[in-house]
Amino acid sequence: MMLIIDLFDETEQLDKQIQDNIKSLLQHAAEEEQIGQDAELTVTFVNNEKIQQVNAEYRGIDQPTDVISFALEDQVEGEVQVIGAPTQRILGDIILSVEKAKEQAGDYGHSFMRELGFLVVHGFLHLLGYDHTEEDEEKEMFKRQEAILGSFGLTRS
After folding, report:
1. Residue ranges per structural domain of the chain
2. Per residue in 58-97, pLDDT tens?
3. What is the 3-state secondary structure (H, E, C) of the chain?
4. pTM of the prediction?
5. CATH fold of 3-75+87-152, please?
6. What is the pLDDT of residues 105-138, one digit of tens each?
């Protein structure tokens, strides 16, 4: 199983080591979630202004947020199902605000890398269909996040 990750840093604030760590973490998360087949996703790091535009356009919330995911596997009502789709899964897109991640790392008292990792895994789990609208779903999703981050060695310190 291979996870193909297209990573774009529109902020030009993340060095190669951070980008490599994010890719390794996502590979780890894919293994932990037993994806089982080749899959592809895109991660784009943006500033607050850009994520606010996306949040307003797609969620009707005109303020910056930390991470937004667009799962391409979600079946939308009235959507035509593609027969004979490619064998490689296209999971979708994760858009993450570097400014928000830095701010939240400070607020929560942990490293910038831990916050980036938390947000990327959160977005990744959304691509796989996890959600947190109901309390039991939220508990399950956050339990998976912590398990993935812990087994990767990205703790709250």
Report:
1. 3-75+87-152
2. 999 999 999 999 998 755 555 455 555 556 789 999 999 9
3. CCEEEEEEECCCCCCHHHHHHHHHHHHHHHHHCCCCCCEEEEEEEECHHHHHHHHHHHHCCCCCCCEEEEECCCCCCCCCCCCCCCCCEEEEEEEEEHHHHHHHHHHHCCCHHHHHHHHHHHHHHHHCCCCCCCHHHHHHHHHHHHHHHHHHCCCCC
4. 0.90
5. Collagenase (Catalytic Domain) (3.40.390)
6. 999 999 999 999 999 999 999 999 999 999 999 9
